[in-house]
Specification:
alpha+beta; 2 domains; 4-stranded antiparallel β-sheet; two-stranded antiparallel ribbon; 2 helices; 6 strands; binds zinc ion
Length: 114
Amino acid sequence: MMLERCLHCFATHACELRYTKKGLPYTTCRVCRTRSFFHSEEALRGVAIAPVVIEATLRQVQAGDPSVGWVPERTAQLKNYVRDTMRGNGLPGLPEATTEPVPYVDAAAKERIG
Ligand SMILES: [Zn+2]
């Protein structure tokens, strides 16, 4: 089943709902290449509704509706948060970014390493 919009990159008609061999539903987008696996029927509520809400909201953004001025602002905030977290900026004590994954939490002790 093809979704109207990707829940992640908002690409149109690029995100598809599929099933794993074990019958677990997941979405995959051929534009952003994101795969999201859903472990409960409750998680599918967002998959059903979000593309419609995204479509309507993006139409409002394109029309310059001030009531959705938060959309580009919130998108930029999340991008900056992820970028800063990955680089260790803004969060004192986090290690510098590396080319290889490095755990920064000791799972057994549930404490940050370093
Ligand atoms: Zn996508």
